[in-house]
Amino acid sequence: MDRPTADWFDVTDLAFVADPYPAYRRLREAGPLVWHEELQMWLVAGYANANAMLRNPMVDRVFRDRLPESEWATFNWLNSSAALDAPRADHVRMRRAMAGWFARGSITSLSPLIERVCNELLDEMAARAGQGEEVDLVRHYVEPLPIRVISELLGLPQELRADVRAWSVAMVALFEVDRGSDQEVAGQIATDALAERFAELTAERRARPTGDLISAMVGKGHDTLSDREVAANAVLLFNGGTGAVINALGTGLLQLLSRSKSRELYCSDPESLSESAVEEFLRFDAPLQLFERTALEGLEFRGLRIQQGERIGLLLGAANRDPAEFMEPDSFDIRRDPNPHLTFSAGAHFCLGAPLARREMQIALPLLFTRFPELRLSSDPVPEHGFVVRGYARIPVTVS
Predict the structure, then answer these.
(1) Model confidence over 191-238: pLDDT tens digits?
(2) What are phi and psi of 307, to 5 degrees?
(3) Hey, what CATH topology would domain 14-398 get?
(4) Residues 363/114, Cβ–Cβ less than 8 Å
(5) In sequence order, which residues have a C-beta less than 8 Å from that of residue 272 and are 6 or more positions away?
(6) Hey, which of 56, 118, 156, 275 would disulfide with 151, CB 3.0 to 4.6 Å?
């Protein structure tokens, strides 16, 4: 069978970046797999096909070193030494070393910390409003919450947190398909800084363990990680433990505030609606739109031949809007149930930090509207301008 192609699919087009969902619909109609010559990958936009690929043992994450090595050396080892892109045996070993920290009991025990951080941030928002200052829902609530929580877990010193967040943003930007040379240089510098700081923290915990997650990763046992693996996984946990929550919670809150009926419905019973609302936040506009996989060997899929080594782009945002899986998928429904979205992936690479992300959002959402029941948008939000990572840079609000 000839390869169906989608050369019209342009991830650099500003209209697409602003609203990719019409293009996703066209991709789903084009077939289960569509080859994109410029991206050099198969694109998968349907839910059932993306879900099957995420669970297929013949495809997996395979990190490819970026070249030249002289410019990308740190970026390469930070990714190849972390669980997300490690070979399967190493992936299992590293994941097992961290899994206990994200088990149900451990996450439940973090609830007081999350509530305390939320209430401190809400106090600060009220103080800003009282002084006549602009309140930005992203900068003053959505962003600092997961930064403070994951920093506490990792034992990241207070004085490093702002710098680490800035470096994290610059590093994550390197995963965008459309990036400029200035962005690459800034990201490489930031990646070097992240690696250096977390290597220092790893050495300190190796010498003087405390009760944090980095200390646990350097502990003795059959799953002991090397210093390089500890530093790489700490960077991965910080990047993943902040970006997904910031973008999903920010985008979801914007959708809620932009729809008066949804907002009124939520405020009528936040206790019972918070869980389903958070899941809809995660589904409706996925914070990470593209997951990549690589064919470990040649395989047939839905009548098409995928060659060994070919890349497969799983468009999670498209899968989460597939009408074959979700009733009225383009509707924002905070009561949607069931809601089997793929935002946290599936299979062996299901997001380790998903329980923590859910708990943070499920606590932050009702506390926000309990404190500020008249919360309203005060001016137009400012979106980030990426394809792979979707979110908002600013969401100005009025609190009372």
Answers:
(1) 999 999 999 999 999 999 999 999 999 986 656 799 999 999 999 999
(2) -80, 150
(3) Cytochrome p450 (1.10.630)
(4) yes
(5) none
(6) 156
Cross-strand partners of 306: 299
DSSP alpha helix (H) spans, the chain = 14-18, 21-30, 47-55, 69-80, 88-99, 104-109, 111-130, 137, 144-154, 158-172, 181-207, 213-218, 227-258, 260-268, 270-284, 316-319, 354-371
Query: Nearest 5°: CA angle at 99, between 94 and 104?
Result: 170
- pLDDT tens readout for residues 27-44: 999 999 999 999 999 999
Which residues on adjacent β-strands are paired with residue 5?
A: 35
Q: Say how many CA atoms lie within 13 Å of 114 toward its Cβ.
A: 23
Confirm if 90 and 241 have CB atoms less than 8 A apart. Answer: no
Burial-class residue 362 by CB neighbours within 10 Å (0-12, 13-18, 19+): middle
pLDDT of residue 221: 61
Kindly provide the b/e burial profile for residues 56-87, where b requires at least 16 CB atoms within 10 angstroms of the residue's own CB.
beebbbebeeeeeeeebbbbbbbbbbbbbbbe
Quick one: CA torsion of 137, 142, 148, 151, rounded to 10 degrees?
A: -140
Dist. CA 141–CA 250, nearest whole Å: 9
d(CA 197, CA 161): 11
How many angstroms separate the first and last alpha carbons of the chain?
A: 61
List b or e across 294-313, with b for residues whose CB sees 16 or more CB atoms inside 10 angstroms.
Answer: bbeeeeebeebebeeebbbb
Neighbours of 155 (CB within 10 A): 18
φ, ψ dihedrals at 313, nearest 5° = -100, 110
> Are 76 and 66 spatial neighbours (Cβ–Cβ below 8 Å)?
yes
Report the C-alpha gap between 15 and 13 in whole angstroms.
5
What amino acid is encoded at 299 in this protein?
L
**Cα–Cα distance measured from residue 343 to residue 282, given in angstroms and rounded to the nearest whole number:** 6
Chain centroid to Cα 138, Å, comes to 15
Tokens of 125: 């928002």
